[in-house]
Amino acid sequence: MEPLIQYVLAAVLLVLGLAVVGGALFGRKRKQRLILVAASAILWGSALLLYGCTSTESPTETPPTPVAVLETVTVMPETATATLVPATAAATLVPTAPPSPLLPSPTPKLTTTVELVQAPPTAGRIAFHSARSGELDIYVMNADGTDLQRLTESPGRDFEPDWSPDGKTIVFSSDRDDPENAQLYVMNSDGSDPKALMPFSDADFIAPRWSPDGEWVLFHSNQAVDGEARFEIYKVRKDGTELTNLSNTPGNNFRGDWSPDGQRIIFVSERDSNRELYVMNADGSNQVRLTDNQADDNRPRWSPDGSKILFEGNRDGDNTALYLMDAPSLVVAGPQEDKIRLLTFPGFNSQAGAWAVDGEKIVLSADRDSDSIQNWDVYIMDADATNIYRLTTDPELDRFPAWTP
User: What are the tens digits of pLDDT across the range 303-335?
Assistant: First the structure.
């Protein structure tokens, strides 16, 4: 019986019992008074019984309000965010491809700020370009994100820096003296004495990379070749002399990187429609295709020990992820797709990866902590994509990190 009905019946019986008691007190006949007293006792006893049952019956329980619990996320320096997930519901993360053994746990989209743990001390310095000043400039910081310093402050864009092997010089691209064309510049590692590497040319010079011996700079440029303006891989002496076209093949060729011994170069080419990875000797001979995929592969980086190639691609969905490939042998004859594996989770964009700390770590740009507006920051992680730390938190983009001891 419903508790409310029981309470009402108990009250009615109580009132009737009072009425009967009144009759017993003021009745004229003794026998009738005794009967009324007995009736009142029965009515009050019934009322007490109903009330007691109502009190001891368990009320209808209201389900407890779900308590929010903090879902585990990778902790990064300075400022990071994490998603609050109700305890009664599980968060759903749908990857665009099955995780490989090298994949870190996927990071959910971020909404709530949490305190960060500082990245562990790591040797070396990281150079990168940032738009935090309103225009692209070159910055450097320690490999744990501390001691941030701005190196350039020109009216143009300064971007894509690379350290010389001895860490004393930085080469970069800039349109500071020609808004229509980016040229190559070099400066001391503290930003002093910036100067053009070569005479100005009506073309772009982009993505410079020092050779392991520090004698050459590799880059790509869209100078006219046989009357056709297309991107080719070039190298030039550190003093700006002996400019040499290495790829010299129809179809854009760009983003070259040296092998650790300086004997070979891995690069990107569009000669077969989409962007694929190729390898060639340091003099431009023996150009061989290494990847064969409908997606675009880009920005390859040879590991310091020469065993692996780090590159980015959109093979597993709309976003760009980092991949690892076994380095090609000296006798490689064609694509080696079976030697490629996914490194970073493809649910967000990871780009511009570069090796750090003798191949034990990787620095990269990623938008993994973006909310409604995409923003690129610099991260550092172990070479197997674990223990990732966010090094920059500025609302403007920070990209293209390069590491030096």
Answer: 999 999 999 999 988 899 999 999 999 999 999
CA distance 309 to 328: 9
68: helix, strand or coil: strand
Q: List, in sequence order, every residue forming a beta bridge with 137; answer none if it has no partner.
A: 130
Residue 83 tokens read as 């998603």
Q: Which residue has the higher pLDDT, 112 or 122?
A: 122
Task: Return d(Cα 216, Cα 213) in angstroms, integer.
Answer: 8
Cβ atoms of 399 and 352 closer than 8 Å: yes
The DSSP secondary-structure symbol of 76 reads -
Q: What are the tokens at 163?
A: 């350290």
Total count of residues recorded for the chain: 405
111: Cβ contacts below 8 Å, ≥ 6 apart: 81, 83, 84, 371
371 with 101: CB under 8 angstroms?
no
Give pLDDT, residue 227: 85
Least confident of 35-44, 264-273, 341-350: 35-44
Distance, in Å, from the CA atom of 380 to the CA atom of 352, rounded to the nearest integer, reads 12
pLDDT of residue 135: 94
User: For 162, phi and psi rounded to 5 degrees?
Assistant: -145, 140
β-strands 169-174, 158-163 pairing: antiparallel
383/360 Cα distance (integer angstroms): 5
pLDDT (0 to 100) of residue 45: 67
Paired residues of 173 in beta bridges:
159, 184
Task: Assign 32 to helix, strand or coil.
Answer: helix
